[in-house]
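Data card: per-record layout.
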Amino acid sequence: MAERPYIVGNWKMNGTRAMLSEARAIDRSSQRLMKVEVALAPPFTLIHAVHREVEQIGVGAQDCHSGTEGANTGDISASMVADAGAKFVILGHSERRQDHAETNALVRSKVESALEAGIRVILCCGESEETRDEGKAESFVARQLKGSLPESLDNADEVLTIAYEPIWAIGTGRTPTVEDISAMHRSIRALLVELYGEEMAAQVRILYGGSVNPDNAKELLAADEVGGALVGGASLTAESFLGIVLAAAEVQEQ
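The structure for this 254-residue chain is written out next.
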């Protein structure tokens, strides 16, 4: 796996310019924690502002359109978010899949568009509680990833990160067991090897997301094949988000 853990904050539909102070605080503290790669995905309206405020951390977008330009009122293309300062984009998040009926095929087209625009992709996957209870979580996630990933990707190790977020754990305060998380991450790793070869797949980080907070971060980040975290609510303040970054640094030092 890649050496440095990757901790990404997804601000979702939160944030005005008043929150730039939180981004600055996260950035300044991250400069003292170089063993961890840190990034934020603010709403579209703040990408440029956050990009201008920070020096160390990465800045990304929460979504993009599959097209490059056109009559798509309210949509934002990958080249537009790149122009605003985004270096990566989160795609296929369960909230997009559920609330906006995004299919695997649509997510794949967005992934391809982002890569063509020269920005990295964090591709999300995850199962419902019902699917897990039926014992089909790993097979469901495998199908989801196969349908959402490009069939050919020569530099997956450089441009791709996977984020496993069980739908039933997002924002609920519930998390799977460490054993369940490790099993799913090993399953995802095996799929990446199948798709892109062992050498390249070994360098793709697989993040865990779903009610990650400073109290449980160290245990979750120490799980097998977990290369970081995609953090929602706990990324909205520097205090809570940096608690997770510190946990990642401690795990890295072990």
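Known properties of this structure: The CA atoms of residues 234 and 240 lie 5 Å apart. The beta strands are 6-10, 37-41, 58-61, 88-91, 120-125, 160-164, 206-209, 228-231.

See the next section for split statistics.
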